[in-house]
Structure to design on (828 residues):
């Protein structure tokens, strides 16, 4: 499941609902789309245990009923942490996400990891380009620290990156800035921070 | 170990989910506890292989057995192949990630010829000897099946045993023969001899081909008494249960839907059509069985689309009833239903009208040829007025796009016949203008006819590149129109398919050399390497024109004559001669023309009377089946 892109993940959720027999709502029009919203795209290759998804159903169900029906319908790799009913008038999930916290595990030894982190944090600006557009990565790094190594002895980082619409920090770009190849690290999204109001 | 190395590679390649497995409904069994391990291989990328119904059927059937397991493998795309070779990772199965060389049986699907070099590449990536003759007791048994293997000879050097025809029963016979052999400690040769006794199995190393001085075939001889000659295709006299536990891919694939086979075979007898000739007799499933299977499959997969598959949907006896049943049952459930291969008649428009969402992709019609004379030659009778009337109805019921499929290169075709295609396209578009004005669009796909073995056109010459180019130039010139979109096939790709379709055993060497010269993914336009093939022909001192541009003598022994589809060669010849006289043979549901199926499979028909087959009933008393002679 980690190598599934955003659109494919959306499709997996749609099929999970269809298997569960829960009446997923669809948009009107010529190409009806299931009314599902994923809060924040998870890049290919990342794992996560904090994803948020809004789903509209045609009928009212208790959260426990929804869990009971969805669980046996889940594909390998997806699991449900909790289900809540939310007020339909709340703003869309995407607009509520503020930041994301990632844990990065380096597969190879990086002896000067602390220095690289210090170097990155001490920079005033980290000008980079994404799809030809210049931006400052430093502004998007809200917090970065070295964690104790895991049981296998792999070095680990924890980073909080901005995840607002139009201002999203990407872990692989942080890694590139630190001269670590993306394939030499595993990235796990640990938390999505959303606006409390 | 392989997991660690893959971990570093997967993030660097396109669509890594092609190489991970782990989808819903994949079957992972305890490797050590299972006696026989079978890898089902589609020699193209995951996106295409996952849409192959034949392998999905076998996967489900084999995994229902407690003593066998089936896992999947596909061709890695070129980026993944390079990364795997660099990291010395052998091709592995998606389920348990065992290397293919650890399996007992490798079953390769060969539905079309342009997969041949990929099949070699897969064996090479798996570290399995390419040549059947070089394999040892410890190497897997390599078997292959699929429509292309009705002429198995071009691949004879690489495949230990071919499964001719439908595989649902014979695969178990192969597994059982394999298990007995494996318990016996006999040499590999004994396994091949054992397999050759099974009806429908062709073990090429147990046959010898004798050539005439002029390079055509003198005769085909079997080298052991036990082997079949001819090798008669297997059929399922009663269509097996419809699979319902399809693996649900996590990424886009070409047909990302539930495939439901409503009928098998076709009674129309279009003379160019390989599938129509080799998949006889026509067998139909009941509406109740189909609807029950759709229900099950939807529950297990959650797909949002189903494809009702057959060679000719409108010919399914209960088509109207079926479409009514499914559209009513799944109303409001946002389920797309696709119905390919509709005949050109107003009834088809009525059917499509019932299918919500069917307007998305446009309405497809396949007249194949533009003049009534040409359509008589290919036995696809249809009047131009009927086509135009159908087109008008389609446009006026709110489809803005019609797709028309034609072929150029039919026998006896002239430039006037090609010009007629362009006139007909314009006439169809005018119907659109008449119905909905300038919103009307027309997509025209023109492929090039390739004479196929076991068809009435197996004797004819294929057009040369120059002829094809002249015809395509005429099409491009005449159909330069804002509202018409024309697509065509690269003549060189046509040639490749033509060499391979009617190739003999010597073609094996050409395939091997072409692969060594870098040919693979021949079905992919941007990967197709024509020079590798030309060089291979040169190296083997064979003339490609011998296979493509030569009209065969009526009494020529073909490389595939020892393989029987149940349709007699004499019948094909008659049909070819009717074609030359511009005479048609109607739908054989209306009148049996004695193609050979009924006498060949009389016992099967007797055991499955009534509606199960579209052939007439067998009235004669039971007697043992008389096989037709080799030629």
């Amino acid at each position: 499941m980690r190598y599934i892109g955003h659109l494919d993940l959306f499709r997996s959720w749609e099929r999970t609902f269809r298997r569960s027999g829960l009446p997923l709502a669809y948009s009107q029009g010529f190409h009806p789309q299931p009314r599902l919203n994923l809060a924040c795209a998870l890049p290919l290759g990342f794992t996560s245990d904090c994803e948020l998804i809004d789903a509209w159903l045609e009928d009212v169900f208790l959260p426990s009923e929804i869990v009971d029906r969805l669980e046996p319908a889940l594909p390998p790799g997806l699991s449900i942490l909790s289900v809540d009913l939310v007020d339909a008038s709340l703003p869309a999930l995407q607009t509520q996400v503020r930041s994301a916290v990632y844990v990065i595990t380096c597969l190879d030894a990086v002896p000067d990891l602390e220095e690289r982190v210090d170097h990155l944090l001490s920079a005033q600006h980290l000008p980079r380009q994404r799809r030809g557009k210049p931006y400052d990565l430093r502004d998007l790094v809200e917090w970065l620290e070295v964690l104790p190594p895991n049981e296998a002895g792999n070095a680990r980082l924890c980073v909080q990156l901005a995840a607002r619409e139009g201002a999203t920090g990407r872990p692989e770009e942080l890694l590139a800035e630190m001269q670590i190849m993306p394939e030499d690290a595993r990235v796990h999204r640990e938390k999505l921070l959303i606006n409390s109001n | 170990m392989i997991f660690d190395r893959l971990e570093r590679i997967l993030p660097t390649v396109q669509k890594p989910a092609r190489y991970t497995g782990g989808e819903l409904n994949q079957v992972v069994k305890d490797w050590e506890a299972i006696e026989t391990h079978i890898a089902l291989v589609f020699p193209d990328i995951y996106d295409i292989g996952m849409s192959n119904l034949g392998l999905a059927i076998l996967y489900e059937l084999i995994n229902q057995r407690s003593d066998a397991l089936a896992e999947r493998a596909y061709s890695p795309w070129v980026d993944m192949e390079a990364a795997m070779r660099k990291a010395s990772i052998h091709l592995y199965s998606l389920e348990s990630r065992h290397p293919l060389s650890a399996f007992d049986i490798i079953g390769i699907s060969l539905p079309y010829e342009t997969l041949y070099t990929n099949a070699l590449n897969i064996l090479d990536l798996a570290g399995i000897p390419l040549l059947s003759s070089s394999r040892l007791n410890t190497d897997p048994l390599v078997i292959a099946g699929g429509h292309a293997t009705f002429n198995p000879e071009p691949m004879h050097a690489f495949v230990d045993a071919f499964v001719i025809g439908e595989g649902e029963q014979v695969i178990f016979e192969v597994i059982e023969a394999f298990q007995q052999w494996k318990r016996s400690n006999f040499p590999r040769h004994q396994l091949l001899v054992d397999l050759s006794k099974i009806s429908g199995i062709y073990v090429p190393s147990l046959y010898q081909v004798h050539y005439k001085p002029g390079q055509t075939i003198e005769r085909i001889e079997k080298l052991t008494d036990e082997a079949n000659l001819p090798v008669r295709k297997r059929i399922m006299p009663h269509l097996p249960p419809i699979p319902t536990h399809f693996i649900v891919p996590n990424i886009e694939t070409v047909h990302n839907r539930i495939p439901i086979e409503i009928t098998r075979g076709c009674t129309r007898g279009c003379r160019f059509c390989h599938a129509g000739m080799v998949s006889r007799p026509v067998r139909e499933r009941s509406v109740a069985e189909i609807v029950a299977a759709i229900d099950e499959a939807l529950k297990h997969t959650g797909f949002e689309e189903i494809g009702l598959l057959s060679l000719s949907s409108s010919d399914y006896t209960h088509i109207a009833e079926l479409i009514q049943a499914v559209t009513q049952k799944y109303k409001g459930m946002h389920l797309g239903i696709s119905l390919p291969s509709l005949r050109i008649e107003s009834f088809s428009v009525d059917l499509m009208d019932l299918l919500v969402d069917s307007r998305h992709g446009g309405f497809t019609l396949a007249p194949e040829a533009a003049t009534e004379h040409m359509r008589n030659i290919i036995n696809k009778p249809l009047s131009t007025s009927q086509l135009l009337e159908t087109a008008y109805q389609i446009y006026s019921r709110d489809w803005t796009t019609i797709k028309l499929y034609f072929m150029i290169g039919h026998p006896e075709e002239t430039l006037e016949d090609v010009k007629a295609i362009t006139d007909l396209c314009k006439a169809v578009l005018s119907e659109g203008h008449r119905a909905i004005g300038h919103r009307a669009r027309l997509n025209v796909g023109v492929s090039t006819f390739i004479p196929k073995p076991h068809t009435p056109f197996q004797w004819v010459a294929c057009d040369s590149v120059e002829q094809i180019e002249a015809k395509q130039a005429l099409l491009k010139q005449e159909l330069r129109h804002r509202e018409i979109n024309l697509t065509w096939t690269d003549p060189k790709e046509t040639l490749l398919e033509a060499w391979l379709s009617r190739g003999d055993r010597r073609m094996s060497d050409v395939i091997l050399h072409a692969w060594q010269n870098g040919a693979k993914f021949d079905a992919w336009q941007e990967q197709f390497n024509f020079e590798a093939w030309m060089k291979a022909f040169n190296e083997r001192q064979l003339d490609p024109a011998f296979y493509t541009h030569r009209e065969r003598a009526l009494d020529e022994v073909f490389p595939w004559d020892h393989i029987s589809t149940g349709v007699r060669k004499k019948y094909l010849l008659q049909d070819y001669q009717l074609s030359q006289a511009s005479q048609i043979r109607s739908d054989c549901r209306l009148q049996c023309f004695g193609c050979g199926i009924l006498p060949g499979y009389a016992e099967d028909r007797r055991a499955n009377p009534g509606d199960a087959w579209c052939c007439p009933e067998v009235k004669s008393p039971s007697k043992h089946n008389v096989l037709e002679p080799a030629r």
